[in-house]
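Forwarding these from the shared drive since the link keeps breaking.
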Amino acid sequence: MFDVVMDSLPAAVASALAEADSENADWPALWRALTAVSVELQSLLVTQPGPELVSLVEGIVTQLADGVAGTGRHRVELAELTHRVLDTHARACAATPPDPVRLADWLLDLQLHHPDAPEVGLARYARALDDEGLAHYRDRAVELFTPLPVIGFGETGRYDRARWALLRVMEELAEYTEDVDLQLLVLSKDLSSGWHYLQVATVLRDAGRGDEALDWIDRGVHATGGRGAAPRLIDLAVEEHLRRGAPHRAVAVCREAFLIRPNLDLYLKARALVVHTDEWPPLRAELVEHLVRDGSRLAIEVYRRIVEVELARRGVQEQELVVEWLQQLRGLQPDAFADYLEHIKSRHVADRQLLDELSRRGL
């Protein structure tokens, strides 16, 4: 009796799929025939569990997965039915575990040869795979995934069907096993933007691997040239150094990033870290001198914003320094300087000390 079923159910699926894309196909009738196969497999799970049933369901899953890839009209319905039959397969394997290595190979091949197949869900196969099958699944997946080329910074992702299928396998495997190294292997294959560097660094930080996280942060900041995700990368580095009780390294990160691409946020970060120490005056002088040497439009804009920030401090020392910086800015931007100076004077008209100092310096 079971031998008859072994032949009749695959034949019914093959017949329905062969007609499915035909112009004159009676899809409702074909769909009833296909769902009847799914129902019959579920019944056999109760009445005829065993290795033969596992093999039968595997064959039908493969047929349906081929149908999903080959049809244009009924892809959604067939994909949903494939998922249902795959669930029956998982239950059949739980009831009668097959050879774990063979099962691991079948699960991998299903996904790699059918990128549109439903997600396997390793948790459903935990008992059947056991440690031996899972180890084989992992080793083979890693062996296939490792040679894939890394998508470098600024490059467009090359997600062909094969790469996409492998990526899906690895992501699910990393999540199921909670293996940080697997997660990092997946993330580090796509470094097309600074946000990908940030993902890698965050995973490493959360895993307690701070040294590696800092290395990836440094790589990310240099790759981005201080743009995009760079501020978040720098924040992560500063947090990690402060957590370690190394504020001098946090300052160094801000300094190095400022020299790559000056901006006000980095200046303020560095200032907040050391403003009440003897380190701040020489560091401030270095940062401002860098802006003077740069002389670019971006540097001048940052220079102006720093002047505004320091003016807001209202301290005598800050104001004296601001006046010195204004003198330097006059040399950097002589044509626009007069209007900018008048703007400052009008905003601080009540600050007689500042206005007197400007006048004394010939400004």
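-- next protein --
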Amino acid sequence: MSVLEAVVLGIVQGLTEFLPISSSAHLRIVPALAGWDDPGAAFTAVTQLGTMAAVLVYFRADLWRITTAWARSLRQPSLRASLDARLGWYLIVATVPIAVLGLAFRDQIETAVRDLRLIGAALILLGLVLLAAERVGHRRLGQEALTTRDGVLYGVAQAGALVPGVSRSGATISAGLFLGYTREAAARFSFLLSVPAVVLSGLFQLGDVGAADGPGAGLTLVATLLAFATGYASIAWLLRYLLTHSTLVFVGYRVGLGLLVLGLVAGGALEAR
């Protein structure tokens, strides 16, 4: 991997992690289109630590309030009904599915699911799911309406992001819309939920960064820092955007990109694996 590749892929990771268009898909598609080697699942997971840091900084007040309220509620049962204490439990419960499935299917995540045909199909399918969520959801609930059931459903949806092309934010925002939450409320919980999942994934893959056939620690660090900067900007932009706009632009982008990828693979312009 060259410095140029690390810079481009770091920016791509930051811009696409929080938009419902799948960062892992773009980190597979962009190198394929440019004629570069696949950076691999380890590179993807570790650069996500940069975007995780962006979430920590952007939502630092929310995360501190949730963490302290949850910790206090362990000793004081009267606090367990508060929204912040409940959010702490919901984030824990919602992280279980992706943690379990990520460990169970680690080998497939690093190999089989990186096939461009699967990624193209996932982009299209989840685009249509997001479209359906926009049409079906009544979008009246705020974050205070969250329940344990909803937390579990958010977590199940997030687990789908183990397949590149699904998109963590796309799946969880779709789940929130189906459940009746506003776009902004669904996006905020989606971003908060990304923290434990991305930390676990990035730290689990950290040891693979220095592998002989990998991009190396230095270039991965460059990409991770750029992912942090662009990821922070992406969060701020998307939350403002969803206050007054639907997600239909992302639906169109996903379907168009998926069709392009499948067409290029079918025509022999791109290798599926």
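The chain has a mean pLDDT of 88. The chain has one domain: 3-266.

- D.
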